[in-house]
Design brief:
Layout lengths: L2 H7 L13 H18 L4 E3 L9 H6 L6 E8 L4 H18 L3 E5 L15 E10 L13 H4 E3 L5 H10 L11 E5 L5 E5 L5 H17 L2
Parallel strand pairs: 5-6
Antiparallel strand pairs: 1-2, 2-4, 3-4, 6-7
Helix pairs in contact: 1-4, 2-4, 4-7, 6-7
Bound molecules: flavin mononucleotide.
Flavin mononucleotide binds next to strand 3 and helix 7.
């Protein structure tokens, strides 16, 4: 499964089988995390037993309490931490999809019950639920490309592909509060239009755009 295929088949899954992730897969996940932590200067952590991470009423009601494992998205608390978490966390989400697992980014979780190691100067931004879904989720309602783009109107294929993949990106409460602008010199700006965890969203959107742009 390519990353593009992973983007197309991925949906948030909030109900999981009572089945732990096999040890050989745990090793693959930890290898991938090491690679992404290095590229993104992050401290993403795979926590095999999600424990009570999702025992807050909202997450429980959503079904997330059934997730066997969790990824804690931790990193050095600088200005672009949220965006880096979005970009490299989504790379991990797509990898997990490629190895047959399901995920859900979760801004609402129980911080105190998450067994993440957060060092001095670091911050735990968000978690990602992971496991074998009872279903594969479903396609989200999406804005149209015209609602999230600006700039030049003669749009090359690579830009259209990038936007198409960006519209398949998960965003908090499916807000899709981003704008992608194509400039005259072919450079691209990503604009955060605000909203809850919108900087994490922007990183995720950039990750999808880059995959779409290079799949030409
Ligand atoms: C930054 C972020 C935070 C999210 N937080 C939650 C959450 O707390 N609870 C939840 O059930 N879903 C959460 N989601 C999942 C979104 O609701 C979901 O991605 C969106 O509705 C689009 O659906 P899709 O992921 O199936 O494409 C979050 C997604 C993102 C990107």
């Amino acid at each position: 499964m390519t990353e593009t295929e992973a983007i197309i088949s991925r949906h948030s899954v909030r109900s999981y089988e009572d089945k732990p992730i096999e040890q050989d897969k745990v090793e693959l996940i930890n290898d991938k995390i090491r690679e992404l932590n290095e590229s993104g200067n992050l401290n993403l952590q795979f926590i095999e037993d999600a424990g009570k991470t999702y025992n807050k009423l909202f997450s429980r009601a959503a079904g997330l309490g059934s997730a066997p494992s969790v990824i804690a998205c931790v990193g050095k608390d600088d200005e672009d931490l949220d965006e880096r978490v979005g970009y490299y966390g989504e790379k991990l989400v797509l990898f997990l999809q490629q190895i047959g697992l399901n995920t859900c980014w979760t801004g609402t979780f129980n911080r105190k019950n998450t067994e993440a190691v957060v060092m001095d100067g670091e911050r735990l931004v968000i978690t990602i639920a992971v496991g074998y879904g009872r279903d594969q989720g479903k396609e989200h309602r999406s804005k149209d490309a015209s609602e999230v783009t600006q700039g030049r109107t003669d749009r090359p294929e690579w830009f259209k592909n990038g936007v198409k993949m960006a519209l398949l990106a998960p965003t908090a409460i499916n807000q899709q509060k981003f704008t992608i602008r194509l400039n005259d010199d072919d450079s691209v700006d990503f604009i955060d239009n605000g909203g809850i965890l919108s900087k994490v969203d922007l990183g995720i959107v950039k990750c999808h755009f880059d995959i779409g742009r290079s799949s030409n």
